[in-house]
From TrEMBL:
<dbReference type="InterPro" id="IPR050140">
    <property type="entry name" value="SRY-related_HMG-box_TF-like"/>
</dbReference>
<dbReference type="InterPro" id="IPR036910">
    <property type="entry name" value="HMG_box_dom_sf"/>
</dbReference>
<dbReference type="GO" id="GO:0030154">
    <property type="term" value="P:cell differentiation"/>
</dbReference>
<keyword id="KW-0539">Nucleus</keyword>
<feature type="DNA-binding region" description="HMG box">
    <location>
        <begin position="1"/>
        <end position="66"/>
    </location>
</feature>
<dbReference type="GO" id="GO:0000978">
    <property type="term" value="F:RNA polymerase II cis-regulatory region sequence-specific DNA binding"/>
</dbReference>
<dbReference type="InterPro" id="IPR009071">
    <property type="entry name" value="HMG_box_dom"/>
</dbReference>
<dbReference type="Pfam" id="PF00505">
    <property type="entry name" value="HMG_box"/>
</dbReference>
<dbReference type="GO" id="GO:0005634">
    <property type="term" value="C:nucleus"/>
</dbReference>
<protein>
    <recommendedName>
        <fullName>HMG box domain-containing protein</fullName>
    </recommendedName>
</protein>
<feature type="domain" description="HMG box">
    <location>
        <begin position="1"/>
        <end position="66"/>
    </location>
</feature>
<keyword id="KW-0804">Transcription</keyword>
<dbReference type="GO" id="GO:0001228">
    <property type="term" value="F:DNA-binding transcription activator activity, RNA polymerase II-specific"/>
</dbReference>
<keyword id="KW-0238">DNA-binding</keyword>
Length: 66
């Protein structure tokens, strides 16, 4: 299952592409921008994404026990 960073990056990538209107931006450039956003996020936002990651992990455990 995806960790907090991956979930955050995925959500922000969709926002970034919609806002910029340019899906041709290289993923490496998008990752750099979103990486800086992640580093600048508040502890509350990081906790939210950590919770999302825990829920994804629990769903994965239910779907694929053992």
């Amino acid at each position: 299952p995806a960790n907090a960073w991956i979930l955050y990056r995925s959500a922000r990538t969709h926002e970034f592409k919609a806002r910029e209107g340019c899906p041709a931006v290289p993923q490496a450039d998008i990752s750099k921008v979103i990486g800086q956003l992640w580093r600048d996020e508040t502890p509350e936002v990081r906790r939210f994404w950590e919770g999302e990651a825990q829920r994804a992990k629990a769903r994965h455990r239910q779907l694929y026990p053992g």
